[in-house]
Amino acid sequence: MAIIAILVSLSVGLVRGAQQRAAIARSRGDLAALAQALEAYKQFYGDYPQTGNAGQAPVVVGAVVAQSQAQALLFNALTGVYGPTNFAARRNGPVLVELSKLRSEVTIIDVTFGVPQGSPPAKLAVANAFLDPWGNRYMYYYKSAPRVGSPVNSPWQLPGFILYSAGPDGQHAAPNPNTGLFAGTAQTTGVNADNLYATP
User: Fold this and answer.
1) Distance of CA 105 to the CA centre of its chain
2) How far apart (Å, rounded) are the C-alpha atoms in residues 200 and 196?
3) How far apart are CA 180 and CA 175, in angstroms?
4) pLDDT score, position 139
5) Residue 171 near residue 134, CB atoms below 8 Å
6) Coil, strand, or helix at residue 95?
7) Measuring CA to CA, which residue among 180, 173, 138 is closest to residue 159?
8) How far apart are CA 175 and CA 162, in angstroms?
9) What is residue 131's three-state secondary structure?
């Protein structure tokens, strides 16, 4: 009986390990696809979605993401609803992500999604966010759009965006939303040690 118990526990451990490796590989693939879409977005509009003034939804999904939160703005930007700086005026831009290959918070079943509607016709903004294989929201940070009458210079100190999964534990310590910098070694230690990052 003891030998059987040991074999069962080893099998369970191997299965869990394989599932975790598969989830990590899936997350890396998602992040690569989103990063590629963001680069295409920058080529089309001249910059990445400037969500620095928007609040962040929590990593762990509780309530549905609000349309005004950074993750929903990213979703809508990459599906052609918004340009990089004005998240009030809707556009009819290109869909830059293959939605069927990415998991989202709200399953899109509305056939009118992504189709310009109204008069004048414009795409519909949706309260949605991209999810990692553990069912948590991907986190996206980028600089703020300049405010009217303020200097153009942004405190953002990175050449690109920050996009990541909080990893298997679903926990993270966020970067400074104004500068994009992590405090000390926080990006790679503590709760962020298992985070998976996209490369801009």
Assistant:
1) 11
2) 13
3) 6
4) 98
5) no
6) coil
7) 180
8) 9
9) strand
Decide if 128 contacts 88 (C-beta within 8 A): no
The Cα 8–Cα 163 span in angstroms is: 38
Which residue type is seen at 156?
W
| pTM score, whole prediction | 0.86
Task: Supply the pLDDT for residue 82.
Answer: 94
Tens of pLDDT along 163-173? 999 999 999 99
Q: How many Å apart are CA 106 and CA 121, to the nearest integer?
A: 24
- For residue 102, the model assigns a pLDDT of 94
**Alpha helices (H) along 46-116:** 70-78
Which structure tokens are listed for 43? 């080529």
Residue 76's CB: how many other CB atoms inside 10 A?
24
Question: Quick one: tokens of 195?
Answer: 């985070």
CA distances from 147 to 22, 52, 72, 193 (A): 43, 11, 21, 35
Helices (H), the chain: 2-45, 70-78
Q: Which of 139, 147, 35 is nearest to 85 (CA)?
A: 147
Task: Determine contact, residues 125/34, Cβ cutoff 8 Å.
Answer: no
Q: Radius of gyration of the chain from Cα atoms?
A: 19
The parts of the chain modelled with pLDDT lower than 50 are none
- What distance in Å separates the CA atoms of residue 197 and residue 179, rounded to the nearest whole number? 17
Sign of the CA dihedral running 139, 142, 144, 145 = negative
